[in-house]
Design brief:
With 342 residues, this protein is an all-alpha fold. The chain has 15 helices and 2 strands. α10 crosses α11 and α13 packs across α14. It is found in: Cell membrane.
């Protein structure tokens, strides 16, 4: 039931536009058009797609190179110098496109490709869990009575101020080694760092509850969850999606940091953070072993961060209009012509 119908039923005139009502969420085509107008976001998205394709096709790419992640090649490292790869730039050759790992001689390209798969899967799974728990707790707190809101808000505050990495280190240290580490990392990161998105969702729900169309839905007899599903969740898509895009690169860095500390992904499963951890003793003898995983980690994090900023701008009509009016030669030309006409 719309606000006009309610006004007609009560015998009054239909209310005018509500100045406090948020702008309707943009359609998919409109968001895509705004996103394409941002070159940095498009470049970041292209890098993300490239890394996703590499991660998905890691077995195929490794087979194309003719290598795998576990085979040792002792003949390709110099045992007299402690295991430094023979050849230039870490032993790059037609059979080993990015060289070999110091000490073991394992193929670097195959390990980096499989490492991308582990890092992206862990980060994506943790982000999905954070969004699910954050939206659930935020909705319950925003729609609940004062006692429920206060209780859930205090629980959320605990998770916000909690040093998630410290608790993750403690949990990962006591869990049996037989439990799959990528799944464990996904669960730990996802279940400990959802507080921020819960607070954002709660604040949005409290704002939306006071608007006319939400009140009309409740007066029409809709239950709280029906109102949340039909009226509130569509309005929460933009802020939740924006925050999720920011969380994902943070989770990539967290996974790499835990693996770097030696409590994340365990050998022989490859991970960029794990490779950086073992590379600390080789940074002088074989700089490629340090540069390759760190450069990939930096590029992935930067691409996700830039793309997240582009998504935020595309989903925010005010930011998109400022970009459209305030930048570009065409916009400057229009302003100049308008000044000349005056």
């Amino acid at each position: 039931m719309t606000t006009e119908a309610l006004a007609a039923a009560g015998g009054g005139a239909a209310p005018g536009p509500d100045a406090s009502a948020p702008a309707p969420p943009p359609g998919a085509r409109q968001v895509w058009r705004r996103l394409r107008a941002q070159r940095a976001a498009v470049a970041g998205g292209a890098v993300i797609v490239l890394f996703v394709l590499v991660a998905a096709a890691a077995p195929l790419l490794a087979a194309l190179e003719g290598q795998d992640t576990t085979s040792y090649h002792a003949a390709l490292v110099d045992s007299a110098s402690g295991g430094v790869p023979l050849g230039t730039f870490g032993g790059v050759s037609p059979h080993h496109w990015l060289g070999v790992e110091p000490g073991t001689g394992r193929d670097m390209f195959a390990r980096l490709a499989y490492g991308a798969r582990v890092s992206l899967i862990v980060a994506l799974g943790a982000t999905v869990l954070q969004v699910l728990f954050g939206v659930l707790f935020g909705l319950l707190a925003g729609l609940g009575r004062r006692f429920v809101d206060g209780l859930l808000s205090r629980i959320t505050d605990v998770f916000v101020i909690m040093p998630a990495l410290v608790f993750a280190i403690a949990l990962l240290a006591v869990v049996p080694s037989g439990f799959p580490r990528p799944v464990l990392l996904m669960l730990v990161l996802g279940l400990l760092a959802w507080g921020g998105i819960a607070k954002i969702v709660r604040a949005q729900v409290l704002t939306l509850k006071s608007l006319d169309y939400v009140a009309a839905s409740r007066l029409a007899g809709s239950s709280g969850w029906r109102t949340a599903r039909r009226e509130l969740l569509p309005a929460l898509v933009a802020p939740v999606l924006t925050y999720a895009a920011i969380l994902l690169p943070s989770n990539i860095v967290s996974e790499a940091g835990l693996s770097f500390l030696g409590i994340g992904v365990t050998p022989p499963t490859p991970s960029w953070g794990q490779m950086l951890s073992s590379a600390t003793t080789w940074y002088q003898a074989d700089s490629a072993y340090v540069l390759l995983p760190s450069a990939l980690l930096f590029a992935t994090t930067l691409a996700f961060t830039v793309f997240a900023d582009g998504v935020r701008t595309a989903l925010d009509p005010r930011a998109a209009s400022r970009l459209r009016i305030g930048t570009g030669r065409r916009g400057r030309g229009r302003r100049k012509n308008g000044e000349d006409a005056r």
